[in-house]
Amino acid sequence: MRYRFLHWTKLVFCLLLVLGISLASVGCNETFRRKFVRESKNKTSERLVLKTEDMEADPSTDRYQKHYSFWRLWHKDMIQTLQDSMNSRGSFQGKKFSRAMEGALLELRQMQRFLPEESKSVLDQELDELQKTGMRVLDQQGRDRMRSDAEQRLNTQMRRIQRDFSFDEVSSVLLEPSS
């Protein structure tokens, strides 16, 4: 009987040894060890060194085109907001219209910085008209008749600005903005 006990213990010991060797060779040992071993708190990290380089500013033509494209998107969004409220007979989305109007005005002011004085005055008139139309719409809370009238005014104004201030029209007279 004692012989059987020794035989079983040797067998279990050999199986555990084979299992340990196989686990070590498979690669689990490292992840298993990493799970239970503490890392030192005094870990030194490499110091990050930033090297600055002088970058060329975008030419005024690129910046003008960017502002012109953004203006067109904001202006179309204003018109679309009016059309959606008229077509669905739903409520007027004043916040959306107001945000689009502010964006369009901001981009027109940015475009104005690149233009010579005579063009600035013409664009200034367009800015005033856009602001008046937008305020009228917001004051009236987008009543049906007002929405239709405002949509026509905005479409007309958009065509005028595209005709007079498109990049092709003003590319020869663009200036570098003064801050």
The profile of the biggest β sheet is: none
Output the number of helix runs: 7
User: How much helical structure, as a percent, in the residues?
Assistant: over 70%
- What letter string, H or E per element, gives the SSE order? HHHHHHH
Can you tell me the overall shape? elongated
Strand composition percent: under 5%
How would you sum up this structure, described in words?
The protein is an all-alpha fold. It has seven helices and no strands. The longest helix has 28 residues. The chain is elongated. The termini are far apart. The model has no long low-confidence stretch (mean pLDDT 82).
Blueprint of the fold:
Layout: H1 2-26, H2 28-36, H3 60-87, H4 94-112, H5 117-139, H6 144-165, H7 167-170
Helix pairs in contact: 3-4, 3-6, 4-5, 5-6
Q: Could you provide a short overview of the structure?
A:
By secondary structure, the chain is mostly helical. The chain is 73% helix and 0% strand. It is elongated, with a radius of gyration of 36 Å.
List keywords for this structure.
single chain, mainly alpha, 7 helices, elongated
